[in-house]
């Protein structure tokens, strides 16, 4: 006997086809947002210069369309560089600055900031 399927591709009569189960099994974790952490990021910038702002890195973060990633996925940089980073895109901007190891540079800096934040909290 052949099984019947709903128009959405789920077995007819299943919990999902009847709208009782959520479509996503793994919801995103809550966003970490801290003014103290943002101040630490601005005090320890990846790119030194005047007018340091917090730059959220979307390529690693938990953000989405129209959503900012957690503060742990951020680095400090001057406002002009941040604006340029938005115009070029993260991959092109950081790739031009740090070459093929740009991901490692960003991850190391973010890890150092998170470690510093945890140590200062004690």
Describe this structure in words.
The protein is 39% helix and 8% strand. With 122 residues, it is mainly alpha-helical. It has one domain (35-120). Helix 2 crosses helix 3. It is globular, with a radius of gyration of 21 Å. The termini are far apart. The model has no long low-confidence stretch (mean pLDDT 82).
Keywords:
122 residues; two-stranded antiparallel ribbon; globular; single chain; mainly alpha; 4 helices
- Largest beta sheet: what is the strand line-up? 1-2
Q: How far apart are the termini?
A: 65 Å
The count of helical stretches stands at 4
DSSP helix fraction:
25-40%
Mean pLDDT: 82
In the predicted model, the low-confidence regions spanning at least 5 consecutive residues are none
Task: Please tell me how large the radius of gyration is.
Answer: 21 Å
- Care to count the β-strands? 2
What's the main sheet like? 2 strands, antiparallel
**Quaternary assembly:** single chain
Strand content: 5-15%
Structural class: mainly alpha
The best one-word shape is globular
Order of helices and strands: HEEHHH
Number of domains: 1
